[in-house]
Amino acid sequence: RDSIYIVGSSTVFPFSTAVAETFGRTLGYNTPKVESTGTGGGMKLFCAGVGVDHPDITNASRRMKASEFENCQQAGAKEITEVKIGFDGIAIANSKSAKHIDLTLKDIYLALAKDVPDADGKFVPNPNKTWKDVNAALPDAKIEVLGPPPTSGTRDAFVELAMEGGCNSFPELKALKKSDEKKHKAVCQGIREDGAYIEAGENDNLIVQKLVSNKNALGIFGYSFLEQNADKVQGAKIDGIAPTYDTISDGSYPISRSLYFYVKNAHVATIPGIKQFVTEFTSDKAFGPEGYLADKGLIALPDAERASVAKSAKALTPMSKPE
Amino acid sequence: MSKPTLNAPQAPVRRTIDIVNASLKRRHAQERRFRRIGAIAVALGLAFVVLLFADIVGKGYTAFQQTYLQLPIELSAEKIDPAGTREPETLSTADYMAPIRAALRQQFPEVTERRELRQLYSMVSVGAPQFLREQVMENPDLIGTTQEVWVLADDDIDMLVKGQIDRHAPEESRRVNDRMLGWVEHLEEQGRIEKRFNTIFFTQGTSREPELAGIAGALMGSFYTLLLTLILSFPIGVGAALYLEEFAPKNRWTDLIEVNVNNLAAVPSIVFGLLGLAVFIGFFGAPRSTPLVAALVMTLMTLPTIIIASRVALKSVPPSIREAALGVGASPLQTQFHHVLPLALPGMLTGAIIGMARALGETAPLLMIGMIAFIVDIPSGFTDAATVLPVQIFLWADSPERGFVERTSAAIIVLLAFLFLMNLVAVLLRRRFERRW
Amino acid sequence: MNITVDEMEKMTGAMSSAELASERHSRTTVGDFTAADPRMTCRNVDVWYGSKQAINGVSLDIGKNEVVSMIGPSGCGKSTFLRCLNRMNDTIDGCRVTGSIQLDGQEIYDKSLDPVPLRAQVGMVFQKPNPFPKSIYENVAYGPRIHGLTNSKAELDELVESSLEKAGLWKEVKDRLDQPGTGLSGGQQQRLCIARTIAVSPEVILMDEPCSALDPIATAIIEELIDELRANYSIAIVTHSMQQAARVSQRTAYFHLGDLIEVGETNQIFTNPQHRLTEDYITGRFG
Amino acid sequence: MNITVDEMEKMTGAMSSAELASERHSRTTVGDFTAADPRMTCRNVDVWYGSKQAINGVSLDIGKNEVVSMIGPSGCGKSTFLRCLNRMNDTIDGCRVTGSIQLDGQEIYDKSLDPVPLRAQVGMVFQKPNPFPKSIYENVAYGPRIHGLTNSKAELDELVESSLEKAGLWKEVKDRLDQPGTGLSGGQQQRLCIARTIAVSPEVILMDEPCSALDPIATAIIEELIDELRANYSIAIVTHSMQQAARVSQRTAYFHLGDLIEVGETNQIFTNPQHRLTEDYITGRFG
Amino acid sequence: MYAWTLIVVLLMVMALAYHLGRKRAIASAGGVTQINTLHSLPSYYGLYAAIWAGLPALLLMGLWFGFQDQIVTSLVTANLPAEMLDGQSSGRVGLILNDIKNLATGNIVSATVTPEVQAAADQYARLARIANWAMWLAVLAVAVGGMAYAWLRTEPQMRARNRVESIFKFIMITFSSIAILTTLGIVLSVVFESFRFFQMISPLEFFLGTNWSPQIALRADQVGASGAFGAIPLFTGTLMVSLIAMLVAVPIGLMSAIYLAEYAPRNVRSIAKPVIEVLAGIPTVVYGFFAALTVAPLIRDLGALAGLNVASESALAAGLVMGIMIIPFVSSLSDDVINAVPQSMRDGSYALGATQSETIRRVIIPAALPGIVGGILLAVSRAIGETMIVVMAAGLSANLTANPLDSVTTVTVQIVTLLTGDQEFDSAKTLAAFALGLTLFLVTLVLNVIALSIVRKYREQYE
Ligand SMILES: Nc1ncnc2c1ncn2[C@@H]1O[C@H](COP(=O)(O)OP(=O)(O)OP(=O)(O)O)[C@@H](O)[C@H]1O
Ligand SMILES: Nc1ncnc2c1ncn2[C@@H]1O[C@H](COP(=O)(O)OP(=O)(O)OP(=O)(O)O)[C@@H](O)[C@H]1O
Ligand SMILES: [Mg+2]
Ligand SMILES: [Mg+2]
Ligand SMILES: O=P([O-])([O-])[O-]
């Protein structure tokens, strides 16, 4: 094998492929083969072993889990370099021809949670039918949210950030986290299954287009799609913050997550170009705020963090076991 | 002769013809209705094709053109070939982006601020230097001159020029801001912007840049996959059908096989992907993401279709033909190959057409065997990593860039053209063999 | 009763094309082709298969309550002519019919004429038995059903039984009416097709060698049937058995290579043929 | 020559099942079913279609250089029996054959026997003409081709011509050898099938009503052919024409409802039948 | 590249063998005029020789390709200095060898080239070259040997046709068994996982439960859905979507088949048929977009006009579009069989005074029924197995409903979603996909058995 083999997250796929292409075009190496397998699938392939048949790099839209790290260790992939490449914002948007809508995390939680606390704090199946039921300030429209299915990393992130965030706006629920973490998760992260939340497949373009033809619906998808389709859909402000490059980058926009890739150090010496690929990826002209990945919708890390990431990536510093 | 009345039936109370005539109006109405329903059905079928086509072509035809910017580019000898050796090595490693950028700056001297300059540079594609390099390498005499060169525009500019981005939309909901719009309009006034036939689309592999993305890799991938699928599945399918229908003893065991084959047709395609992953890649160690494995999976998937269609076709050949051949001492195999197969061939080809069409359009099982991958290089064999048209379409359809929307449709057009070509061959064959007896 | 090779040579020699050409002048029909009370009248009927002419200007009537038999060497156009009479030739690609064929004074090749009632009126038994791939019962019940000839299941059962009975098949098949008609022996299939045709009581019946696969007993039953049907209907029958023609028909037409050579009273044709070709044919048989 | 309805009633009545049962004791074959110099010997052949028995324990020989004719009412099992002789019944679903059938002492239903050379040796003309949907030429040339009987195109042409000639079809089709065999008239198709069969020179020929669609002249030609073939080969012919049986065959077998009732010298059978059923059948015809 | 030339050479050897075998047969018979003393036609002797020349050689070549690299690699490995391999896992060794191979074939290499590696690469290149030559020699030797064998065995009594035909028959049997093997493979690959699934989730819940929400947490820190595994809504969803699809496809498909085969002029038929067949080949993504963006909103708007409450994802939209997709399965196959019904059947019916439509409905369709049912079965199968359209147009939520205007999901959609995301083979979630697969397999099996017996019952064999 004479080319790098990359697997993993479909969210990172557009960025990884952009680097792969530039890498192939400018550095004279063969263009890496990038497979979109989803974060979990990628981890599984990546941690299956060392050797020509196994991938060199896996992309992830979340950190590697301790269990996955263990798997890697057992399969002989002892040294793994973790590279954080930037942020991905998750936008909640509706059609441009509909009224602009501003939400709080609490609204989101109340609109989409499976069970919500009623007036006396008891959990009842979510009774809210319209946005007005959720919050009197919101329009009297049916709750209809198109979002990714549970298999997608976007969904994981949405649940963790938006739903749990909204959940924690209830003090008693926030307290629950300390006392009974499991229960807290269950009540905060469960998404209703009664049709108000529509699992629309993993194609974000489809969600965008469905929004165009359905004015009532809201959609949940990655920031890059919002940016590309700014003439068709508008992002809702969350807690008063609009999803823009700057707000996501500085962390004020609440629903954003980090993206990573992982390198199998054992392959670096024997598969041509891995080091150069990592260098290319972590160069400012790629993942910097002015870099070509920014054009593709990646939101760059803050300068300082970027520099340190680039440094340890170049050195291929192995990660320690994640907690 | 005996007396005619002896056993004569009671003469019908009414003549048949009266009864017939009485019902004729109703029956003719029925006939007309039936016929009209048939015509409507065909028309509907055709209308669906036309509708889908119009939809796809309407969205995709613009992708066959690509926007270029004309820039006076100074190919200074010092920059490109300082030693003046004209060695290909030097020429190919030279920086061609610089002269393009210089030309842009020269067009818009007022732009100096760094951020603005970046925007200005972003008007040409990152792939533009590559084409300039090719031109120079082909004709090294250009070095040292200033040439009016058509360089590839960035996808945003392309979208703008093609009207996919609304120039009158408010700036914040437009990917091209007012400043860039001004530059574009300036260039347009000078006649320096032109849409040309998009050769890149047909000659290049995929890319993350819409303007550089081509279908050639996926097309070749599909070609290899389908070629191998056809080579494998048609003979195997026909052979199996022949055996099951004509040779195998008719017993529970063959009934089981028949049910089994029918049932395989209902197995979701992704399960074939699972099987391929486990057997071909896992067990036999065939290389992942290759037309070879894809073709093997597709073969398993299309076999039931071909077997069923072929059996149906064999069944409809009248037994007297077989008897006639056997009667002059032809062996069963000769009977089949000389007489039955030619008569059944149209039906078998139908099976092949439908099976191949499905194999050409299928994505799900390929997800399992690693074909949903970013592969730039155009495959040149069955064991090169490749992707195929529907997967390419699937990937492009999921890309955020606006430029991929039309390219997705264009790729579908190419796929359909491929399909038509395939059908055409089969249809010509089918027509040769079709007859009534 | 045997004929020698020499005799045969002579016979076939008589038909060699050179000689035929010289006889061309005499190939206009001999005898009176009209019937006193015609149901069907054909005038100058030509039939082409593609560019090949299979029938040359044949004129012939089929009278009320009469049986007309058509005889002639194999390939002379008997079936072709018969198929013209209920427009069955419509279904053959490239088959063209010109001239006038009338049923009760109505031109049947008229554009406006509906072949459906025509064929209900002019029934046909084909040369090759072609039972439907259905049960025996359904084969016979098919016609009455589509025309709505019966009003109840019982009536239909009765009609099926009587039709099979008339065709001499009832005894053989009454226990297996629900079995496929295609699983019958050749002669049984032929009788099934006859039963199927008479079940709709057509007024003109065209029979193309209805007894070719039948043994003498079954043949006798069919001939009896024909005789009986004649009381009400008109029948045209193609046969290779001159005895049969003599037994069942009132008039006989002799065809030769697409021409209607001679037509007349059956007795007269067989005892005193006018045309040399007719005579050759008949004596070839009887000689 | 006509039979009355009454007589017919009697005849068919004679076959009614009750009476048949009482006659069962007499249904063992009358006459000598062996041949002096047999090519094919059948012993106790039973044939079932599914659960229905179509042939009951028939024993019959076909001798060298002889023509055996098989007669009997429609549906009595003649075709079924004939088809056993070259294992054509193998192609019918649910058809079972037991007993012994030998060709030159070799059991043809032996598991190890290859039916292909058997069928090349024992040719068959089917009851319903079944030309291939190919050209006339190809229809005849097919057999010689697969058996490699000729060495050159010229030889093959010659063989095709002579086969068609012998079947009396050459004159009619020589100008259109390249046209489909399915576009011929019924009788022409039948002769084409005969030509196709004799083109491979089988040593035993089974003919199922080969002349049923033929006019007397064509029939004479085929009978002549049969006579000629007899010099070298053995022939079994099914026919409904007793005259034909009398003309062409040396021995005759009379079948009735699956039983071989009587077999013997043709002369003797037709002049002095031993069994009442045979007599009924023959006199029914001649009476 | 070399493999192709070798195959071409092999084909030429086979052609030669054919020619020689044929000639030899003729000669052994004593010349062209004597070939009727041969058991079979000379061309069968030729074929026999060609098979002997080609088949073993091809087999050998296949084996060689399978093992050459392994053997050469192990030779090279054996020669590598021990310290390079000490304590290395096999994967690691593979990587080192990969580097050596890259060097040997002139590809880019990863790191600095040590002398040992260089030496190994040289050795690899040399061995590969030798092996390549050896393969040529061996394959051609076997080919010629096979040819010689056939040549020696050629004699007039040899039953060449039977031998060739047995080989063909054997090949055909092999082909037929592929279907069985595939089934076996599928069953084997789902049955164990299903078994484990049913150990976790009671079959009772699975088969009778009406609540489907399988996305339970895979990881400790994840929160999934409620984790209900009642498969009934999936099967009803599958049923509904397939039913709607069949309601579209069968009438349109069958009627257009009838029209094209019986009414339309020949040239209309020859154009319309392949054009309609294109419907089967349009990628499902396209249909998915069409269903989700054109049909579904249309239905919703129409429903709104009629005062109905229509979900924006509806079974109806998915079913309708799926129906369009499978039209050709019904129409083309039916068209072929209808066309194959002998003309004499039509003649028989017309002669009784039946109209064309009566003939079609009462004679031709019944006669063509086995084929039509075959086509319909294929179409049903395709409908059951389709995923993309449903994912895009009908959503993923498992509603137990009989209302086609509601959103539903299907078995295959769930299988795909469960298998393409994060998987964990000891979680009921992933295993559920296998249980679904197995159940679907069995259900369709039963349906097929029923269909087969129905077809048997109504089968009408012409002639
Ligand atoms: N394929 C079949 N399946 C079931 N029964 C059959 C089949 N073929 C023939 N039979 C039955 O077997 C019996 C003998 O048929 P066979 O064809 O041998 O008669 P046959 O003597 O040739 O009559 P014919 O003179 O009418 O041709 C008949 O009762 C017939 O109905
Ligand atoms: N479908 C056809 N296409 C072309 N030629 C045909 C077709 N049918 C018949 N012919 C030719 O037309 C001529 C007359 O055929 P027809 O079937 O009318 O003869 P026939 O008198 O019925 O003969 P037979 O007694 O053998 O049935 C023959 O030469 C025949 O070859
Ligand atoms: Mg005729
Ligand atoms: Mg018979
Ligand atoms: O592919 P994911 O980023 O959704 O895991």
From TrEMBL, chain B:
User: What GO annotations for molecular function exist for this entry?
Assistant: phosphate transmembrane transporter activity
- Where is the protein localized? Cell inner membrane; Cell membrane
Family membership, please give it.
Belongs to the binding-protein-dependent transport system permease family. CysTW subfamily.
> What PANTHER family does this protein's entry cite?
PHOSPHATE TRANSPORT SYSTEM PERMEASE PROTEIN PSTA (PTHR43470:SF5), PHOSPHATE TRANSPORT SYSTEM PERMEASE PROTEIN PSTA-RELATED (PTHR43470)
Q: What keywords tag this UniProt record?
A: Cell membrane, Membrane, Transmembrane, Transmembrane helix, Transport
For the keyword Nucleus, the answer is no
Q: What's a Pfam family this protein contains?
A: BPD_transp_1
Highest taxon above the source species: Bacteria
Q: Where are the transmembrane segments?
A: 37-57, 223-244, 264-285, 292-314, 372-397, 409-429
One Gene Ontology biological process: phosphate ion transmembrane transport
Name this protein carries in UniProt: Phosphate transport system permease protein PstA
Give residue ranges for domain ABC transmembrane type-1. Answer: 219-426
Q: Which residues form a coiled coil?
A: none
* Cellular compartments per GO CC: plasma membrane
Q: What topology does it adopt in the membrane?
A: Multi-pass membrane protein
Q: Does the keyword Kinase apply?
A: no
Provide the primary localization: membrane
UniProtKB/TrEMBL annotation, chains C, D:
Q: Which GO terms describe its cellular component?
A: membrane
Q: Which Pfam families match?
A: ABC_tran
GO MF annotations in UniProt:
ATP binding; ATP hydrolysis activity; phosphate transmembrane transporter activity
Domain of life where this protein originates: Bacteria
The record's keywords, sorted A to Z, are: ATP-binding, Nucleotide-binding, Phosphate transport, Transport
Example GO biological process term? phosphate ion transmembrane transport
> In this protein, which residues make up the domain named ABC transporter?
40-282
> What protein is this chain from?
Phosphate ABC transporter ATP-binding protein (PhoT family)
TrEMBL record, chain E:
- UniProt-listed NCBIfam families: phosphate_pstC
Any coiled-coil regions, as ranges:
none
- Membrane association type: Multi-pass membrane protein
**Gene Ontology biological process:** phosphate ion transport
In Swiss-Prot or TrEMBL terms, this protein is called: Phosphate transport system permease protein
Reply yes or no: does the keyword Hydrolase apply: no
Where, subcellularly, is it found? Cell inner membrane; Cell membrane
